[in-house]
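@channel sequence for tomorrow's demo:
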Amino acid sequence: MTVLARITLLSLVLGLSACTVQQPTPDTSPLPPIPPSGPTTKPKPSTAPGKPVTPSKPAKPLPRTSASFAPPPGGNSHWDAKLGVYVLDDQSNVFYRQRTYYRWNNGWSRSISPQGPWEETDIHGVPSGLGRQFGQ
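structure tokens (generated this afternoon):
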């Protein structure tokens, strides 16, 4: 085989193999967070008479970001795993996921900016979690 043919064949094989290395991620809800590792200690029960011992669980903080989706640029928001979107903290019923903002105002609309312009859409044009929450 000539050098040119070998280089061409090698380039083709490498180029095609790059397509199979990374699989696209499905559009589903993110995986649950991984619990912290390390030793855990159980609270010791109180020995005071007359006081029942009830273990208290600390409130689990809500995640501020998603493992799968980037947060909106320049806006205060938090990730809502049930809805599968970021909820904008300073605007009512405005959501964000994958470079698109979604707004509920007696119907759905979407935009590439939180200030609009807004384009009307139906329930099929929004992430499924939003459609289930607000329904039409």
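heads up for whoever presents: The radius of gyration is 25 Å.
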